[in-house]
Input
Amino acid sequence: MFYEGNCEFMENKMTYKDAGVDIEAGNRAVNMIKGSVKSTYRPEVIGELGGFGGLFALNAQKYENPVLVSGADGVGTKLKLAFMADKHDTIGQDAVAMCVNDILVHGAEPLFFLDYLALDKIDEEKTQKIVGGVADACKEAGCALIGGETAEMSGFYREGEYDVAGFAVGIVERDKLITGEKIKEGDVVLGVPSSGLHSNGFSLVRKIVFDVKHLRLEDHIDELGKTLGEELLTPTRLYPKVCLPLIHEFQISGMAHITGGGLYDNIERILPQGLAATIHADAWEAPLIFSLLKVWGNLATAEMYRTFNMGIGMVIIADPMEAAKIRVRLSTMREECFDIGRIVKGDGKVTIKGATDDDNKA
Output
């Protein structure tokens, strides 16, 4: 029995929609994105969108000793810029890239992806753009978008705001698993370029451009040849198509996705005991946005390399002979690659020559 209380003064029954949650709008949004989602399906996907779980039939005959690799991440405060610009069709790539690039460094081919989208109020057109961006990125990365969650959380987020996170699962043969334990002294550190800032350091970026420089996203930055918004909202680069052929064809000792913490923290995560890495900052030219942020914010060089990727989105470590072959292979793919450093004996730290006045980690 439901307890109705003294509600005689209410002429109409209250509904969930009165509390800010529109179930029908949610259903319409799901129907609008079905086409985009289905376009990402691999042959292993079973069933249709809308079930309680995403189904993926792994072809066990294809692998001898498979290892599943999983990862989860979000977009972070870069979302604030999407809100400000009212641009929502590329932010989904950031969510996908942050996850699939992470599992890729272990040698894993991305198999499937699930997204989580939470909004103050479901806007069907906006939802379609966000999830459409996720789907496009999944197709580019070769993984299936097999499910997710769209949650309308009235009163929890500010009006017009939302959060996006993702979850990726990939697979690799155990003998091709990359953990960093095979890294040795003398190995070469290769750097594959980023598309710009990617999705890290945006709390600092926003402070610099809005609070210090008082810029607007629509401001045209002559040095960049584009608006500030166009530069800052450039999505995170997806690396599977570039790196999976290398993983299959060559012996790679270690890989690192350069995200928060920059070249310092992310390379240090994979270094075996007794080894260190020396990186030469003059081995590549960082995109101009990094120089502008340094000047605008009066940032120390070491702080730049600790916070941003500085133009290197993925690091590949291999012995000199394999590294030479990798560079040739990348050139045939018309992909840039820089020889940025060496593995040396040491205490597990990264030194970036040219990143500080005394060439030591700050």
About this structure: The longest strand covers residues 162-173. The chain has a mean pLDDT of 91. The radius of gyration is 23 Å. The longest helix spans residues 124-141.
